[in-house]
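Why does residue order matter? Because the sequence determines the fold. Keep that principle in mind as you read this record.
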Amino acid sequence: MKDKEAWSPQLEAFKLLKEWSTALVVVQSGAIAVIGALLKERNTVIELPYFGLSLICFVGSILVSAHVVGTIPYNVQRLPELILKQKDIYRMRNYIGIPIWVLAFVQHLLFTGGMLSFVGFLYFRPIQPSANPPLHSDSSPAPRR
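Structure:
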């Protein structure tokens, strides 16, 4: 039982890392769905590079997130031996030797790039005219009842 208490901070850190990676995947999947819905509308040449960059970054970040989450069971199984070498989970390596901090950094870098290009995509979208014109114009006062 004493060993399990010694591993408790690392186990909790792995749980938090998994939750954070999962949350990023949910946000990025939602952004990809929004992009897909917006692509059905009229598009301009200006916004398409932002679309491509955001899609590449989001998909890349999702793939790295899957790798981060997939690394957790591998390291948790080896935790007794790893705890003696490295107390910080970010110094632990995955099964091909990449430190977790590198994976997490790349995941966040791609997420940030995807979000910034997503904002650029939305910013350069043409403004669609409203399907329902206003009942009265701004120059004339609204009728009183």
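The mean pLDDT is 83.
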